[in-house]
Amino acid sequence: QVQLLESGGGSVQAGGSLRLSCVASGFTRRAEIHNIGWFRQAPGKEREQVATVEGFGRTTTYADSVKGRFTISRHTTDPIVYLQMDNLRSEDSAVYYCAARGVFEHQYNRWGQGTQVTVSS
Fold first, then answer.
1. Which of 35, 96, 98, 118 could covalently link to 11 via disulfide, CB atoms 3.0 to 4.6 Å apart?
2. What angle (nearest 5°) sits at the alpha carbon of residue 99, between those of residues 18 and 76?
């Protein structure tokens, strides 16, 4: 069973940077974690898709709110996906989750526990 573990959250001032990591384990085939997405949810708000990476990392997507500031990438050999967050803003404060979607699946159905990011202005 696929398990995802996020780390790297914390508190930072506006304009600062953080790098989140998502480590996958328990999978038997890489196809089970073909797609990895980072999502976030702030109190009182709906969950938002922040960035996704497909396959070997050649295909990525970003929410408009983070384009040019966040970068998603995959480790070249290990099952780790990173989210580099630069020029953070107070509105980026949220719990960040990573999720996995298999190559033949249509929805992200494996989720981590989340890591808190707090940006103070």
1. 118
2. 65
CB neighbourhood size of 77 (10 A): 6
Per-residue pLDDT of the chain (121 residues; tens, 9 = 90+): 999 999 999 999 999 999 999 999 999 888 889 999 999 999 999 999 999 999 877 899 999 999 999 999 998 888 999 999 999 999 999 999 999 999 999 999 999 999 999 999 9
**Which residue's structure tokens are 């995959």?**
74
| Cα dihedral across residues 68, 36, 19, 76: positive or negative | negative
CB atoms within 10 A of CB 81: 27
Residue type, 82: Y
Longest dimension (CA), the chain: 43
